[in-house]
Amino acid sequence: MEKILEVRNIEKYYGNKSNLTKAIDNISFDIEKGEFVGIMGASGSGKTTLLNCISTIDRVTAGKIIINGNDITKLRGNNLNKFRREELGFIFQDFNLLDTLTAYENIALALTIQKLNHKDIDAKVKDIAKKLGITDILNKYPYQVSGGQKQRVASARAIITNPKLILADEPTGALDSKSARQLLESFETLNKNLKATILMVTHDSFTASYANRILFIKDGKIFNELVKGEDTRKQFFEKIIEIQTLLGGELGDVI
């Protein structure tokens, strides 16, 4: 299998010698093409720091992060910006849509930046909108659609450039249960039908149960790993809760 992400012995420190915090403590793992991987952990466990380092928002103190054969810890300036724009897709909890653009224009923006011609952009936007069930809202502005629809527009924007890796940070955090389920089903579509490789940070077991593999982070280290395998989503969900209990999570953090 083709490795999309290779994380090698990364560490991340904050502060100075008199007040040093180790947010990530020698973490290593791989993600192969077409995987849907979740990262879980209590608040302060290091999961968000880990995602920030992989997404190039933050820099590691030690170790390597290799995405599609590129060591991103060595990229700087325009090379880093180009890599982020072309190789990564981002889905944020607060959508990050531009209010002055329609759903169509929000999705098309990344392709416009890449200077694709109008005909190709139109075909790509309409194709991804059909797959995510948002064709009927393409001409609406963000304030005219629901939270779940906004998040599916954000998902379309993330996948439209065919990135090697999609990074999702608490994607269901701002959604009601119905919208969350619809978004997660969209993720399944992206993963299974479009072979998208997804890395998702979440504290929610229901959300995590849609992934194929879960990495549990505790005190900046990988505490456990859970693979869905042949389990149903319900069986996988129950196993996730069991490990969350071992991690000492509160009931409200896992249901």
| Major sheet description | 6 strands, mixed
What integer is the average pLDDT?
89
CATH class: Alpha Beta
Segments where pLDDT lies below 50 for 5+ residues? 250-255
Q: Any idea of the CATH topology?
A: Rossmann fold
As a percent range, the share of strand residues is: 25-35%
Tally of helical runs? 9
CATH-level-2 architecture? 3-Layer(aba) Sandwich
What kind of assembly state do the chains in view correspond to?
single chain
Count of extended strands: 10
Strand order of the largest sheet: 6-7-8-3-9-10
Order of SSEs, N→C? EEEHEEHEHHHEHEHEEHH
Task: Produce the secondary structure layout.
Blueprint: E1 3-16, E2 19-32, E3 36-40, H1 47-54, E4 62-67, E5 70-71, H2 77-87, E6 88-91, H3 103-113, H4 118-131, H5 147-159, E7 165-169, H6 177-193, E8 198-201, H7 205-208, E9 213-218, E10 221-227, H8 233-246, H9 251-254
Parallel strand pairs: 3-8, 3-9, 6-7, 7-8
Antiparallel strand pairs: 1-2, 1-4, 4-5, 9-10
Helix pairs in contact: 3-4, 3-5, 5-6
How is this structure best described in words?
The chain is of the alpha/beta class and 255 residues long. It has a single domain (3-254), classed as P-loop containing nucleotide triphosphate hydrolases (Rossmann fold, 3-Layer(aba) Sandwich), CATH 3.40.50. It is built from nine helices and ten strands. The protein has helices spanning 47-54, 77-87, 103-113, 118-131, 147-159, 177-193, 205-208, 233-246, 251-254, and strands at 3-16, 19-32, 36-40, 62-67, 70-71, 88-91, 165-169, 198-201, 213-218, 221-227. The strands form two sheets. Strands 6-7-8-3-9-10 form a six-stranded mixed beta sheet, sandwiched between helices. A four-stranded antiparallel beta sheet has the order 2-1-4-5, with helices on one face. Strand 9 and strand 10 (221-227) form a beta hairpin. It is globular and about 55 Å long.
